Amino acid sequence: MLQAMVVVFGFMALGFFAQRREEQNRSLAKLCLYYLIPILIFQSFVHTGVSVQSLGMIVLHFFVTTLLVYVLLIQVVGRLLGWKHEELKWNALAATLANVGYFGLAVIRYAVGEHAVPYAVAVSLAFNLYMAFFGFAQIGGEREWSGKFRRVLQNPYLYAVIAGLLWKGLDLTMPDALDAFLNLAASATLPLTLLLTGAEMRKNRYGKEGLWDAAKVSIVKLVLPVVVAWPLAVWMTDDKVEQSVMILMFGMPTSLNLLLLAKDQERDTTSLAMIILLTTIASPFTLMLVMNHLP
Questions:
Q1: 89-to-73, 96, 107, 241 alpha-carbon distances in Å
Q2: 228, 72 in Cβ contact below 8 A?
């Protein structure tokens, strides 16, 4: 976990001190969102060792928990905290989307063990499915379901998921040269998204009210998903390893992908960048508390 923290904050620091121009940040966001992350998704499906049955159960568990958390945020928590309209939408996404990739895998290795990594990879795949079908549908300004559906069809995650499932289902063999290229491209995703996060923090200015608003979202993000995921994990499976993975994964900090989506929509990223920073700083402490009480 310490190694993951050093990597995360190290690249954020580099991005913070290297930030110069807004157009460079937007180009970097588009590169990650439309090319590198889809490659990472495709490679994750190609190389996963999780059985279709296990993957299906984990995907179901993930979707049930995530959608329940989202409904609670929209209908209950958001209203109590006074979130409205665009603020409600983006804060709900910030409190739902989690960094289950690099950070999540490091935590699972530390807390549960190497044998739990396949379960964590399956959760990461479920997260990509959620982003492909639900995340992209929420980021635009369309109110009609037809408009949301068109936006889903325009997003690159969906086609990366479909391609990965087809490749896995047909049991095709990846040429070594192509596999090496795709692996290298996928490995560039994390450093570049972290650099962008640091750069976005450099250009933004934070007042006391903005910091407090980001802190409230961060607290909700680190508490509510775990509270919802815990009883569902115990109810949906008797496998202690799977239970532990599902509970811990919902306690991860806010996903960097959300910043890329906001940047692509030319939205102000001030609050989102701070939420990502705060949840990343605080999550080791909340995760340690969860680890001490795992089933």
A1: 9, 11, 28, 33
A2: yes
Note the pLDDT tens digit of each residue in 130-155: 877 776 766 666 566 666 667 667 77
SS (H, E, C) the chain: CHHHHHHHHHHHHHHHHHCCCHHHHHHHHHHHHHHHHHHHHHHHHHHCCCCHHHHHHHHHHHHHHHHHHHHHHHHHHHHHCCCCHHHHHHHHHHCCCECCCHHHHHHHHHHCCHHHHHHHHHHHHHHHHHHHHHHHHHHCCCCCHHHHHHHHHHCHHHHHHHHHHHHHHHCCCCCHHHHHHHHHHHHCHHHHHHHHHHHHHHHCCCCHHHHHHHHHHHHHHHHHHHHHHHHHHHHHCCCHHHHHHHHHHCCCCECCHHHHHHHHCCCCCHHHHHHHHHHHHHHHHHHHHHHCCCC
| pLDDT tens sequence across 101-120 | 778 888 888 888 888 888 88
Q: Which CATH class is domain 2-291?
A: mainly alpha
- Is residue 39 within 8 A of residue 186, CB to CB? The reply is yes
| 225: confidence class by pLDDT, cuts 50, 70, 90 | very high
User: Are 263 and 29 a contacting pair, CB within 8 Å?
Assistant: yes
Task: Determine the average pLDDT of the residues in 195-224.
Answer: 80
Angle, helices 257-264 vs 85-94, to 10°: value is: 150
pLDDT of residue 180: 92
| Amino acid letter for position 223 | V
Amino acid type, 114: E
Placement of tokens 């930030």 in the chain = 19
Place of tokens 């970097």: 28
